[in-house]
Design goal:
Elements: E1 2-3, H1 12-16, E2 23-29, H2 34-44, H3 50-60, E3 70-73, H4 78-84, H5 88-96, E4 109-111, H6 123-130, E5 134-136, H7 139-142, E6 146-154, H8 158-169, E7 174-182
Parallel strand pairs: 1-2, 2-7, 3-6, 6-7
Antiparallel strand pairs: 4-5
């Protein structure tokens, strides 16, 4: 995992256990003031933070999208989506790729099991919490496609690893990960 200011390298965790995705990038580290902006969006429903986040994304100049990739935001369970009113990963995908909204597929990957919030869980508990939480709705559409998976924060990589594993098992060619922020 790297942020936009770091060169290509594998983190210690990725050196020990290779993740199912081929690369993971983040625009910034999860620290102030970005942590407050994301927290306000995710838990406060404050959509006024989207313009500053968009400026941050533009300044980060990350563009991993190739002409044949599909953009898949990490899905929320229906209960959490109803509670929150939006999926922050979908909003971020639109901010990352405003000219490619037709390639943002919000229904190809589904969260089928309601899970406890990941906040406060260690890596082992996060992986256990997410086991069998996601499914692909149409494996035929996924066959041989490279995927760009979008999420808000990369903490331990458990969420994007589980999503990547499910996508690859269903026939995706490869998975890259892009998040707004990363921890550490």
């Amino acid at each position: 995992m790297a942020d936009s200011t770091a060169g290509d390298h594998l983190c210690g965790d990725c050196l020990r256990v290779h993740p199912p995705y081929i690369v993971a990038r983040a625009v910034v580290r999860y620290q102030e003031p970005f942590a407050t902006l994301l927290h306000s969006l995710k838990y406060g429903g404050d959509l006024t933070v989207l313009p500053p986040l968009e400026r941050l994304i533009r300044a980060g100049k990350i563009n991993h999208l190739t002409s044949d990739e599909w953009i898949i935001p990490v899905p929320l369970h229906l209960n959490r989506l109803r509670q929150r009113g939006f999926n922050q990963a979908v909003l971020l995908a639109a901010l990352f790729y405003p000219n490619d909204k037709k390639r943002i597929l919000v229904s190809l990957l589904r969260r089928i099991r309601h899970t406890d919030p990941q906040t406060g869980l260690d890596g082992i508990a996060r992986r256990k919490n997410l086991r069998h939480a996601f499914t692909v709705t149409s494996a035929e559409k996924l066959q041989g496609r490279p995927i760009l998976l979008i999420d808000d924060v990369y903490t331990t990589g458990s969420t994007v690893s589980e999503c990547s594993r499910v996508l690859l098992e269903a026939g995706a060619k490869s998975v890259k990960v892009l998040t707004l922020a990363r921890v550490q």
